[in-house]
Amino acid sequence: MNLSSSKKLAQPLKVGILGGSVDGITLALLLRDLGCNVHIYERKKALPIDPIRGIWVDTFVSKYLTEYTNISSEAFSVKTKYLRYLNDKGYSISEEEQTKYFTSHEILFDNLFTLFGSKNYHFEHEINGFIHEADKVIVSFTNDEKDIFDLLICTEGIDSLIRSTLLPNATLNYAGYVGWRGSIQESDLNEDTFNKFKEALSYQLLPNSHIVSYPVRSIDNKISINYTWYQNVVKGPLLNELLTGIDGKLYEYKIPNTHISEKHKIELLEVANKNLNPDMAALINATKNHGLEVIYDMQVPHMVFEKIVLMGNSAFYSRPHAGMSISKAMIDAWELAGNLSFYNGDLTVALQEWERKQLYLGKQIVNKSALMGNRSQFENSWQPGDKNLNLGLP
């Protein structure tokens, strides 16, 4: 759906967006361009930035910055030239020219937040209830504030209260493995290792496991190397022990670096030095801020509930392998704004048409990402050169 930024809605809407990450801000910018009165509600006290999260920059991720401003992709991302598979010695066993762009969550968020501004961005607003009343949605927050909207859009993410209320049977499915993440600055790697990883999206395939690395541009315009190492963990006591922080809390989705036990970090290093090639192992050894993320997938039967919309990871949750988590959320945003523009604010028609297409796309992405993960983690059938295993849409 093409979106004309010059076309204002005949009757602009008051829109509430729950969740202030990059997809929520992008949608807010698009709807504001249509003349809507848009407010973002973020549950956290500070900006929701993940300093070690990397993002593949496809057309939809970069679209607002490159088409609506004078910011180029090179200004906030890093260009790679190759898709490369490495063996246990660190030598390339498969390589093809393949241009990709990668960035950090931090710099992408900073650029978008600067454009939106802080006036209508509300911190410490966590929803605790909502009701439909006529053609409005009334939302209450835990700080005792309330607001009324023509349209409420949920981009809260994996732990969406709105989704769990509207779709109690739409549950997360544990994929059977976790992802260890890290981001390493240039100064913490030797020059040869850094340059090898800087120019490529790199994989090492292992029995029932794999690790992937790529460069990202950080907020200070420096380049770091990010990685995710996927390791199988049986659901039950072993997984619970891994997800129990040093504070004694059992984490469901991911553990902050400061709460990961030193025991598990040491075990990770031992396994890395034993099983990874020297360059990949160097990434693990140089990691100062670890991330530990549980891998899930989830599909939903509906995304529209009268004047409430589920978007991005609040609806479909895919494994990271296809690199489409942020991209899917951005496509949701562009298509939603495009439909509202095309149907001139007719919510019923615009949302029906939007939901039909986004449900289909969401299922495709979740299924492709699951296929990729299963081939690596359980089937050992991931083959270098298989186009079905590339980043992107099915």
The helix content is 25-40%
The coarse silhouette is globular
Strand content: 25-35%
Count of all domains: 2
CATH architecture of the largest domain, by name, is 2-Layer Sandwich
Q: What is the H-and-E element order?
A: EHEEHHEEHEEEEEHEHEEEHEHHEEEHH
End-to-end CA span: 19 Å
Which sheet architecture does the biggest sheet show?
9 strands, mixed
Mean pLDDT: 95
Give me the secondary-structure category: alpha/beta
Question: Can you count the helices?
Answer: 11
Strand line-up in the sheet with most strands: 3-5-4-12-13-14-11-16-15
Number of strands: 18
CATH topology of the largest domain: D-Amino Acid Oxidase, Chain A, domain 2
User: What is the CA-based Rg, rounded?
Assistant: 21 Å
Describe, in plain words, how this protein is organized in 3D.
- The chain has 394 residues and is an alpha/beta fold.
- The protein folds into two domains: 14-46 and 123-170 and 300-371, FAD/NAD(P)-binding domain (3-Layer(bba) Sandwich); 68-104 and 174-295, D-Amino Acid Oxidase, Chain A, domain 2 (2-Layer Sandwich).
- 34% of the residues lie in helices and 28% in strands.
- The protein is built from eleven helices and 18 strands.
- It has helices spanning 22-33, 59-68, 73-76, 105-116, 161-166, 191-198, 237-242, 262-275, 278-286, 325-342, 347-379, and strands at residues 14-18, 37-41, 54-56, 78-86, 92-104, 121-122, 127-133, 136-141, 146-149, 151-154, 173-185, 200-206, 209-217, 223-232, 254-255, 291-297, 304-305, 308-310.
- The strands form three sheets. It has a nine-stranded mixed beta sheet with strand order 3-5-4-12-13-14-11-16-15. Strands 6-2-1-10-18-17 form a six-stranded mixed beta sheet. It has a three-stranded antiparallel beta sheet with strand order 7-8-9, with no helix packed on it.
